[in-house]
Design brief:
This protein has 504 residues and is an alpha/beta fold. The protein has helices spanning 21-25, 82-91, 107-120, 145-153, 168-177, 196-202, 223-226, 236-245, 271-286, 362-372, 379-383, 422-432, 453-483, 496-503; strands spanning 10-16, 50-52, 58-60, 62-63, 137-138, 155-156, 207-211, 233-235, 251-254, 294-300, 339-342, 350-351. The model is unreliable at 488-504 (pLDDT under 50).
Amino acid sequence: MANQLSSIKHIVQLMLENRSFDQMLGFLYTDKGNKSPLGHPYEGLKGDETNPDDTGREIRVYAIDGRATNPYFMPGADPGEGFQNTNFQLFSSYTLAPGAVATNKGFVINFKAAIASDLAKHYKDTLSGTDPSEIMGMYTPEMLPIMSALARGYAVCDHWFASAPTQTIPNRAFAAAATSQGHLDNAVKVFTCPSIFGALSKKGIDWAIYGYNRDPLTRLDYPDTQAADESHFGHFQDFQDRATKGTLPAYTFLEPSFGSSGNSQHPNYDVAAGEKLLHDTYYALRNGPAWNDTLLLVTCDEHGGNYDHVPPPTNAIPPDNSVGEFGFDFTRFGVRIPALLISPRIAAGTVFRASRGTIDHTSVLRTIELRWGIDPLTQRDRTAPDLGDVLTLKAPRADDPLRGVSIPVSSAAHPNLSSPSKLEKLHAWKVSQLPIRNEHGGYDHIPPDLSSSAAIGDYIRDRTAAWTQHLGRERDRLKSHSSQRPPGPSTKPPRGKKARALKR
């Protein structure tokens, strides 16, 4: 069956937060011997996978019980994130000896350390009674009916790895720019490299970035997105409106709500809220006139410290000459993350793997580049496998795998809804650095009290609005200045002595 990528006019990517493949999709086909209805092999859980605790006792993976207290807030604390915690989870050591081989045996011990750290810092997010063994709790298809129905009804990728073995911001940078410029933690504030969005603009191809109910964080990450026109940005409702009208651009990037009351699925936030977001995204596209020409990709940015039993490959191509923090050379991928590929041009029951290389976030970039003739951004996306081969159906399907599937609802609320999340704080910091003149004509700015999620939301909204007004005034000024310039030098070809001099 021929690759149908050329029939796709719209690629939409929803990137959620901090979940591993096993935790969300490991049990998808366990009852079928880890084979899909098409007979595709599936590297899911068998149910006998274990991890030792700090006494040496082996903790077995288990299915999260929907009747338990707060089942959609599992695990009950934020696991360890970042490069060093990921090293421990994979290698059972924070520092690696030459030639070290990942065994994925450090998750329980590392989660115990994360719980202790949270309690010592008096974080209010950790649920009372959270036990280190919870890192081995996995969601079942019954607990995640939306994600599971879409995975079975279209395609699931069981070998999609995070681009780097670390946390959110560097991996989101790989998703947009095919590099993190050597950075490996969320402390990085701004990137100076070009992004896929700027590359699309240079080709005259439209794109959009939508935050859920706030201006998108990604907008502030790159020079080309900061300089882009306001028409490229909006909220989830704007995405829904454009999908309904069939006017979505070639590439759309969707962000969830990053707060503790949001739908990002970041541990330990409400996973059921993320199920609703996935449902709403799917139906915004499926009910629109461009559905037959659309590819929807759903991933997480990184595993977030949650258990996965498959060691990441070590054949990653370094993106550029950036010097990696901690001496890292970017030849290892991060941990597997859940990944759905959804289109009426995909056969139901597909388990998609690359015929060569390893799929990571830059595979989305490679797919966009091949579809619209965009030059690669770095060596990573230049050599990444693309996703076009998953599109095998020339005639789009008309069935709906979500028909009759209900969205799960949590019976409880997160205990710390008012406090801002780490990503909310990062977003607020980026907004505080925007170059907006104050009443004295300078750029000094002291942010207001940002101790609550609501206050940060208001601050992001108001300061981003002031910044976009500033950009608009600057563009108007430049246009006015350009229109008032005197005519330039004559464009007539030179004659006489001048022409002969030029020929010499």
